[in-house]
Amino acid sequence: MTNESFFADYLAASVRLAVPLAFAALGGLYSERSGVLNIGLEGMLLTGAFASAAATFYSNNVWLGVLAAILAGGMVGLLHALLSVSWRVDQLVSGLAINLVAAGLTSFLARLIFSGGAQKLPGIEAIAIPGLVNIPIIGSLLFAQNILVYLLIFLVGFTNYLLFYTHPGLTLRAVGEYPRAANTAGVSVLLVRYFSVILSGCLAGLGGAYLSLVQVKFFAEGMSAGKGFIAIAALIFGKWHPIGTTLACLLFGATEALQLRIQALGVNIPYQFLVMLPYAIALLALVGLAGKSSPPAALGLPYLKEKSE
C-alpha cells in the first residue's frame, strides 16, 4: 500500500468512525441549546442501533430499519423530555437512568430476537458520484459515501443556518439562555424544549442506525461503547456550535482510527493504552484543554413558570 492510499484509507476510516458521534452530538446540540442537559445520548444511540437492527432483521429492508431507529430514538427523547421538562426530574439523573435502562433492555431483547448471537444484516451501500469519486484522496472521502453521511453534512449546514440566521433558531437559543424572558415574549418554553429533546433522540437514533447498518452490519450488546459520552465531550469541545462540534467529532474519529492503525502495524505499545486514546482525548476536552467553553446559561435548570406569568 502506497503512502497516499494509506493516508486516504486512514481519512476514510476517520470519517466512518466520526459519523455516529456527529449524529449524536448534533442531537445533543439541539437539546442543550434549549436548556436540557442530555446525558442520555448513549442510551439513545444504543436504542437506535438495536431498533434499526431488529427492524431490518424482520423486514430485510434497511430503510425500515433507519425509520425504526428514528422513531425509537424519538421515543426515548420523549421520555427524557417528560422526566426532565414536565416532571422536573434532575436532568443528569434522567439521562443516566435512560442509559442504564437502554443497556439492559436492548441486551435482553437482542438475546430473544437474535438467539444470543450476532445476525448478519443487509447494509446501506455507498453511492459513488461519477467523475468526482476519482479525485485523489478526497474523491473516496467525500464522493463515495452512503446517504447517511450526505444527510449528516446537510444537517450540519442546516443546523448552523437555523440556529444563527433564523427566527426559530433565535427562539431556541433564547429558551436555553433566558427562558423567563422568552416566556414573557410569548414563547412556549415547554413546547420548544419538548421538540428539541425529541429531535435530539431522533438524531442520536440515526447515529445508532449508522453503527448497526453501516459500520458493523449487526447488533452487539453495548455496541455504542461510550460513544454517547464522547459526543457530549465533542459538544463541549466544539463550544455548542454545529461546525465546531462536528470538527471535534472528526478529531475523535481520527484518534480512534489512529489507534486501530497502530495496532494493525504491530507497534510495540500496550494495546490497552491505544484503546484508551479516544477517551483520553475526550477527557482532555472535558477539563477544558481546548479553552473555556460557556454552555447555555439555563442548561440543566428546570423552568418553573411563575403564577404571575
UniProtKB/TrEMBL annotation:
InterPro entries: ABC_transp_permease. One of its GO terms (molecular function) is transmembrane transporter activity. The keyword Cell membrane applies. The chain crosses the membrane at residues 6-29, 36-57, 63-85, 92-114, 126-143, 148-167, 187-211, 243-261, 273-291. One of its GO terms (cellular component) is plasma membrane. It is a multi-pass membrane protein. Keywords: Cell membrane, Membrane, Transmembrane, Transmembrane helix. It is found in: Cell membrane. This is ABC transporter permease.
